[in-house]
Amino acid sequence: DAGVIQSPRHEVTEMGQEVTLRCKPISGHNSLFWYRQTMMRGLELLIYFNNNVPIDDSGMPEDRFSAKMPNASFSTLKIQPSEPRDSAVYFCASSLGTSSGNTIYFGEGSWLTVV
Amino acid sequence: SQQGEEDPQALSIQEGENATMNCSYKTSINNLQWYRQNSGRGLVHLILIRSNEREKHSGRLRVTLDTSKKSSSLLITASRAADTASYFCATDKGGSEKLVFGKGTKLTVNP
Questions:
Q1: What are the chain B neighbours of A100 within 8 Å (beta carbons)?
Q2: Which tens digit of pLDDT belongs to each residue from B34-49?
Q3: For an interface test with B, which of A1, A9, A47, A100 has the most B Cβ atoms less than 10 Å from its Cβ?
Q4: How far, in Å, CA of B68 to CA of B73, rounded?
Q5: Whether A10 contacts A111, CB under 8 Å
Q6: Residue B40, C-beta contacts closer than 8 angstroms, at least 6 positions apart
Q7: pLDDT at A100
Q8: Do A34 and A4 contact (CB within 8 A), yes or no?
Q9: B30 to chain A: which residues are within 8 Å by CB?
Q10: What's the CA gap between B100 and B89, in Å, rounded?
């Protein structure tokens, strides 16, 4: 099993540019999560999907952030326009099933730096 | 706001000693999970304890849960340098699939 695959692993971009982060969940998993990790705020849930449908996007910081899941094997998190305060590690994760108690499997993260 | 809060924020011990980390949460839960994160890597699931359980073991890990105090502890026995990592508790906030993580305890095990 390849695990959750994220790309890019590292990205440095200039303020104002569009950033697109990509995720391939584990095959067969029904739920997909996007988290953001910073020193100050820890690990924050941005949005999660069940069966490709966004269920809770209350953690999305503002309209500059958007996430899509066009099919069961692919999701994107887009930031447009990016700002320096968006610098963080963005994790995609997936789990089997739609109830609590499921193990969440994390990708290795996308390290974003906005200068 | 964070559902789970770990304590201490950082812990440094010698190899062979036991490490205890605590987690407190605010609302009712169905289960609580502990995860580990090595530097620069993603989080990895360690153990899950359900709200009707009080204690659970997995290898050198022992987790306790006290729902009356809304707290949990993770004990790592006979620690090794390879246990150096950050440890997070995560709660499901009333049974939803949405997991909320604390800020973690950074454990350093010195050889």
A1: 30-31, 92, 95-97
A2: 999 999 999 999 999 9
A3: A100
A4: 14
A5: yes
A6: none
A7: 65
A8: no
A9: 100-101
A10: 8
